[in-house]
Amino acid sequence: METVVLAPNLYQLRMGVGHAYLWRDPGSLTLIDTGIPGSGERIVEAIERLGWDPDELRTVFLTHFHPDHAGGAAELATRKGVTVVAHRLDAPVIRGEASGPEPDMAGAPQWERDLYAEVPHLPPAPPAPVHREVEDGDELDIAGGALVVGTPGHTDGSVALHLPDPGVLFTGDIAAGANGGVMFGVFHSDRERALGSFRRLATLEVETLCFGHGDPLLGGAGVALRRAADALD
Q1: Is the pLDDT assigned to residue 233 strictly greater than 80?
Q2: Within 13 Å, how many C-alpha atoms sit on residue 89's CB side?
Q3: What is the dihedral of CA 123, 127, 130, 135, to 10 degrees?
Q4: How far does the chain reach from its first CA to its final CA, in angstroms?
Q5: What span, in angstroms and rounded, lies between the C-alpha atoms of 182 and 204?
Q6: I need a labelling partner for 139 at 20 to 30 A (CA). Which of 59, 63, 95, 108 fits?
Q7: 110: which residues sit within 8 A by CB, 6+ positions away?
């Protein structure tokens, strides 16, 4: 696992499948997504390599239930003081109480369908507690006030996390990094709803985009996001 400094207080944990991110506030750490099953210990080691106390990890925010995002949540939830946060519609899947919908590839372009047929499908994430269920518009005490942005369509309970003060947006899989820019994400359960969610993200004022897949976009991210949304019309 490679750790990349993106900006003051913002760090990327690069994994073989997808990425997680750390945000540092005085005396506390927030982790956005957790990687595939088995990633928990490596995340703790990454925190230690940065010279921090893993006991400062307070919040684990999950953008959705897919195992490359929620796979390490069960391990990290065993740590004292950790609160796992997810949207109420994905929470039952994360807890192992329900099954989540598979991607609907019917309306996807051929290249996306080919990609879906080729990528290895991961086993489900181990059941993990969700200590706090959130909705669109809820606020978290992170970075001076972080806003939960509902992005249904990738999964029913997909959410992004917007940090207005530093201008950072964690998109989950509604968007992805590609060729130094931004693209509409792939493998959605409801493509039309996901398109609406992507366009909604494009209305936010942001400078930095942190994707679940692809390189983050540092600087001018809002402009790039709006251009990508316009290109879909």
Answers
A1: no
A2: 16
A3: 40
A4: 38
A5: 14
A6: 95
A7: none
Distances from the Cα of 91 to the Cα of 71, 126, 160, 218, angstroms: 13, 13, 15, 31
Classify burial at 202, counting beta carbons within 10 Å of its beta carbon; exposed 0-12, middle 13-18, buried 19 or more: buried
CA distance 54 to 51: 9
Q: Is the distance from CB of 221 to CB of 206 less than 8 angstroms?
A: yes
Average pLDDT rounded to a whole number, residues 77-99: 97
> Could you tell me the sign of the dihedral formed by the alpha carbons of 11, 17, 18, 20, in that order?
negative
The size of the chain, in residues, is 233
CA distance 145 to 91: 22
Instruction: Count CB-CB contacts under 10 A for residue 60.
Output: 28
Helix (H), strand (E) at residue 194: helix 191-201
Which amino acid makes up residue 75?
A: E
Q: What is the pTM of this model?
A: 0.96
How many Å apart are CA 189 and CA 58, to the nearest integer? 31
For the chain, helix, strand, coil in percent to 5 are 25, 30, 45
59 and 44 Cβ atoms separated by less than 8 Å: no
8 Å CB contact between 10 and 166: yes
Phi, psi of 96 (to 5 degrees): 85, 15
